[in-house]
Please model this.
Amino acid sequence: MNSRARWTLIAAVLGSSIVFVDSSVVTVALPRIGRELPTTIFGVLEGQLYVYTGYLLTLSALLILAGALSDFYGRRRVFLIGLIGFGLTSVLCGLAPNMEFLVASRVLQGAAGAILVPGSLALLTANFSGEAQGRAYGVWAAATAATTILGPFIGGILVDTISWRVAFLINVPLVVVAVWATISHVPESRNESATGRFDWLGAAVVAVAVGGLSFGATYGQQREWRDPLAFVALAAGVAATIAFPFLMARNRDPLVPLELFRSRNFTVTNISTLVIYGALYVTFYYLALFLQGVLGYSASAAGLAGIPGGLLLVILSTRFGALSARYGPKIFMTVGPALMAIGVLWFARVPATSPAWVFVPGDPSSWVPPGQYFVDFLPGQIIFGFGLAMMVAPLTTALMTSVPVRNSGVASAINNAISRVGPQLAGAVIFVAITASFYAGMSVRLPGTDTSDPAFRHNYSPMNVPRSSDQAAQAARDQSTDAFHLAMFVGAGLLAAGALVNAVGISNHVALEAAKREPAPAG
Model:
């Protein structure tokens, strides 16, 4: 790998990593933010919610617009704008004087982040080919995994030892390095056939579609579907989604060329992304809740419990990326989700009596998990992590080799938007099922109890068990365990469906032929 390629890879990895870090690190900083920042418009809990969801909303809603902009105006130019914007908004977040200022800064930070995620993959597609491209996708996937896994743990240390503000300001030196690398070593590339006007109407419609679905699903789940605003947002998102392809078909220079979906691998990869990433959300979300809310794991122990599987993704992604470029992605995209499903099914056998792990940094005796962890969780983590490592980079390879280089930005953006909206919709549906199952079971376990009473629901909710030994708490613990098992069965089913979709739909021939093409010439 020559110097230009190496620094292009570094810039792309840094650009995407800071986006994923800021979606995970902030979760551990929220309690300190709520205690330290004054607020006048929002309540403390409401402000914390908007700090998190405001970022994710603009990030999701603007992904496709950002990907199209990078293809139209130049990937290097737009990527630089995203880097500088992310650096400036990180400073604003780190220096925020109150909650309202922080929420506004996070919304802007999400908009800048929307440029970086599809832009980073577009840079790799335009500057690498063949096995080198597969390895580059693997490095990108490994770095993304590492930041997602280690982000909360490192962020927790920074928050506890220095300040929550460092969780934002730490982005600045990373942005500086990425900006230097991009200016010095990354060649410009763009869709040379894009000569008409940019489709701003299409951009607005797709932003409403993705943003409405994303906000509606997230807000509805958080409000337990009692606020009509969630249904209004979902209705707007559905209407815009239905209108979007008709609008694209009528436009001479559409934001998203519909011929992209004539590519079999592109369509199949996006369908499997919708299913598989929905499964990932369900699995990770309910596993974290079960460990802490039912078994009694400390937050740090719950994070550490998932590291073995994540390390496999970090270590093996590059290798599987290169193998998929050599042999085709189909086998890896089929076997990977199938192994992940087996790992998730392993979690579905964990009993409510599995002992807790309370990790205390200053107490070495607490660093080793209880022996039952090595039976209840570690085998599932290893199987799941190996399957995830086998799937992620080949999926990226199949996606990015399924479309012309000129459309790499918008293709990456579409897939990233699906990988965010899909999990939120899946999470909203499974939330309704889990909640209904939990309270129905509680009615059986506690005859004569009004489980619809708000006071009861405040004290007893899925995966949130009071630390007591009375009959109601024991019933909640057992029923939460049953609900967790249901979530794991749903997750495993979605993963198996994703494996089947890939086995039937992915074409190795198309991916291998496309991977041989030369990268776009430097502009």
Residues 260-422+488-516 form a domain with the Growth Hormone; Chain: A; fold (CATH 1.20.1250.20). Residues 408-445 form the longest helix (38 residues). The chain has a mean pLDDT of 84. The radius of gyration is 23 Å.
